[in-house]
């Protein structure tokens, strides 16, 4: 399932008030029912600015800088036990976070549950706790058949459209923003679909490993 949420709904999103130009990307996360300590990457700001911007957050015990790679910073957040938010709702339903990208314009998530019941439970948890989400896509993954390589419909659509519009040409004939506008989604969501689609294609064609 893919869904969006307002920038300030997710606790880490309060950083956009101080650093509106940053992008946050969650590490792939398989949540535990009682403990959620997500790792996430921050880019678009200096390390000292990032640490200062994360000083006070509802639901967060601490945020620590773990590592840095060029201009990207890996950080870790520890949550208050009583706080209930998007990650808590996902954890209770045993749903894995495949991708989570946030900017001042909002959050784009791609998640995977083992059943439709798990997805339904997550939606109910969000409703019961007044957590605003907007579901943008729900689909089932199919086993590899022919040239599908376990691509979701939305990943395939994004890759094919980007190819047809010349996004992969050099020089590019179209921008990420233009493709996103044509699909009616955000640039973050499109970027996530392209990245996940590339990963599946590589895993299905160039390696012997699954996705």
Automatic annotation (TrEMBL):
Record flagged with keyword Calcium: no
UniProtKB keywords: Transcription, Transcription regulation
CDD domains the record matches: Sigma70_r4
Occurrences of domain HTH bat-type (ranges): 151-202
Domain Bacterioopsin transcriptional activator GAF and HTH associated: from-to ranges: 20-137
InterPro entries, sorted: BAT_GAF/HTH-assoc, HTH_bacterioopsin, RNA_pol_sigma_r3/r4-like, WH-like_DNA-bd_sf
Taxonomic superkingdom: Archaea
Pfam (any one): BAT
SUPFAM superfamilies linked: Sigma3 and sigma4 domains of RNA polymerase sigma factors (SSF88659)
Protein name, as recorded: Bacterio-opsin activator HTH domain-containing protein
Species per Swiss-Prot/TrEMBL record: Natronorubrum bangense JCM 10635
């Amino acid at each position: 399932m893919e869904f969006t949420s307002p920038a300030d709904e997710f606790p880490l999103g309060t950083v956009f008030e101080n650093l509106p130009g940053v992008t946050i990307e969650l590490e792939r996360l398989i949540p535990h029912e009682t403990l959620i300590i997500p790792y996430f990457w921050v880019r678009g700001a200096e390390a000292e600015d990032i640490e200062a911007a994360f000083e006070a957050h509802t639901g967060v015990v601490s945020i620590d800088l773990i590592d840095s790679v060029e201009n990207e910073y890996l950080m870790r957040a520890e949550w208050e036990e009583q706080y209930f938010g998007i990650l808590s709702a996902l954890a209770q339903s045993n749903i894995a976070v495949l991708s989570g990208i946030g900017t001042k314009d909002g959050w784009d998530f791609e998640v995977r549950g083992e059943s439709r019941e798990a997805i339904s439970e997550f939606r109910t948890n969000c409703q019961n706790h007044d957590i605003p989400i907007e579901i943008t896509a729900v689909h089932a993954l199919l086993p590899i058949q022919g040239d599908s390589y376990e691509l979701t419909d939305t990943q395939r659509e994004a890759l094919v459209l980007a190819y047809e519009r010349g996004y992969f040409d050099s020089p590019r004939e179209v921008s990420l923003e233009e493709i996103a506008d044509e699909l009616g989604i955000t640039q973050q969501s499109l970027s996530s679909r392209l990245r996940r689609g590339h990963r599946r294609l590589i895993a299905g064609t160039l390696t012997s490993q699954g996705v």
